[in-house]
Design goal:
It is built from 15 helices and no strands. It has helices at residues 9-42, 44-80, 84-119, 124-139, 141-156, 161-184, 189-215, 231-261, 265-285, 287-301, 305-339, 347-361, 365-380, 384-408, 413-437. The two termini are 21 Å apart.
Length: 445
């Protein structure tokens, strides 16, 4: 566990974020490998099926991530105040609440899976495969939610190394199972889905067990509560806007996928490949801002606002450096990267459409760097209304612009691509304005 209220902000943020960066790389790696295995070792239609399911799976990931953020912010501020009884109570209350939420969403997900796929116009050629993949994914929602909760709580206590160990284990296992179940046992897209389920399940059990063991070592004057009704609304006040923020992004992907599906299987596959590469770059840029949330939470809890400003400047500079590296990489190696996702028959077409997306979006990555860092301080301070507004503006404009460019201006697939940077421009502007108002300074819990 790491007290972030003393010491060099640069050293703390870099040291804390490096394990998170490696974690993100491994997490994205097994997501990317799922897509590569589907495209290269099954078919372009299998790649399209995974891509068609993606906007629906992101809706559930949004709930898991958003709910976990609420827990993390509360625990981090209590840890910054040395309130260890509160840390224990908040941790167990969070775990039980998130478990209940996951069970409810699993049931709802099974009922809504096929209607959602039809709502976004999934082509009949890939519908059965997309439905199969999605339903196996839904079976593992409990593991997804509990793993995200444990990871966020570890981060709130300043420990980013332990989640890294579990994620490396999960990623390596997932990749091995992908290759074995698809290439050796010939399970097709079902093998890709079960590989994720098994690997994620084992990582979840290990992460939750280790966190509960660690947090018991914190010494408190009184015995903590297993579940505190009074604390749940405090976490919910942070979690609900975070869930909404994450869901806005997912709904945006969902609505845009409806446009993509109208362009046919090759475009669906191309967009799926490009989106995986784009997500990898964006998540890399978001590693330090994610660390900044815990850093800001602890220092706001301790009343050390000057350290928050120093941490923000450091995070923006490093995130912009990552954005520049991503642009250089796509310029030099973009074609072979996108080509990894396609079989020989469809590789040229998938590379062409996939690179169109990256060429349009990558030059605007510096906006994401600034937005993510400002949002992290807003979230760390509990200014969730402002945090949610920045993302909603990004989503609203992106979806509206996508439909206008495609339907009114007949720009086709390029219109969808251009909607992304246009949304980032507005979202970043609002994030900077909200940060400068300073409301996050008064949002201590």
């Amino acid at each position: 566990m790491n007290d972030m209220t003393t010491g060099s902000p640069l050293k703390i943020l870099v040291t804390f974020s490096l394990p998170m960066l490696v974690s993100m790389i491994f997490q994205q790696m097994y997501s990317v490998v799922d897509t590569i295995v589907a495209g290269r070792f099954i078919s372009a239609n299998a790649l399209a099926a995974v891509g068609a399911s993606y906007p629906i799976t992101t809706l559930f990931i949004a709930f898991a991530t958003g709910a976990s953020v609420g827990c993390s912010v509360v625990v981090a501020q209590m840890f910054g105040r040395k309130d260890y009884e509160g840390v224990k109570t908040a941790s167990s209350t969070a775990m039980l609440s998130i478990l209940a939420l996951a069970l409810v969403l699993t049931v709802a997900g099974f009922a809504a899976a096929d209607p959602l796929l039809r709502m976004i116009g999934t082509p009949e050629k890939i519908f059965a495969a997309a439905s199969l993949y999605l339903k196996v994914y839904l079976l593992g929602l409990v593991f997804l939610f509990l793993y995200n909760a444990a990871t966020s709580l570890f981060n709130g206590l300043g420990d980013s190394f332990t989640p890294l160990c579990f994620l490396i284990f999960s990623s390596v296992l997932n990749i091995g199972l992908d290759l074995f179940l698809v290439i050796v046992w010939h399970w097709g897209i079902l093998g890709v889905a079960w590989a994720t389920f098994i690997a994620q399940g084992l990582a979840s059990v290990l992460a939750v067990g280790t966190f509960l063991y660690r947090v018991r070592k914190l010494k408190s004057a009184r015995k903590p509560k297993l579940f505190d009704r009074a604390m749940l609304p405090v976490m919910t006040r942070i979690a609900v806007p975070s869930v909404c923020q994450q869901s806005f992004v997912s709904v945006g992907v969902f609505l845009v996928q409806g446009l993509i599906n109208s362009f046919g299987e090759i475009t669906i596959a191309s967009f799926a490949a490009a989106l995986k590469v784009n997500t990898f770059a964006c998540m890399t840029m978001n590693t330090l801002p994610t660390a900044l949330t815990s850093f800001a939470s602890q220092n706001i809890g301790a009343g050390k606002m000057d350290r928050v400003y120093r941490g923000l400047k450091i995070s923006i500079l490093i995130a912009m450096g990552v954005a520049a590296c991503a642009n250089i990489l796509f310029l030099v190696c973009g074609d072979p990267i996108i080509g990894l996702f396609a079989d020989d028959l469809d590789r040229a077409a998938i590379i062409q459409e996939g690179m169109l997306f990256l060429h349009i979006c990558a030059p605007f990555y510096f906006l994401i760097a600034v937005k993510n860092c400002c949002d992290s301080v807003l979230r760390g301070g509990g200014a969730m209304g402002q945090f949610m507004a920045t993302t909603f503006a990004d989503l609203f404009l992106r979806v509206i612009i996508a439909y206008i460019l495609v339907l009114a201006f007949q720009m086709g697939y390029a219109g969808v691509c251009w909607s992304y940077p246009i949304g980032w421009i507005l979202g970043t502007g609002l994030s900077v304005i909200f940060f400068r108002t300073g409301k996050w300074k008064q949002a201590r819990l």
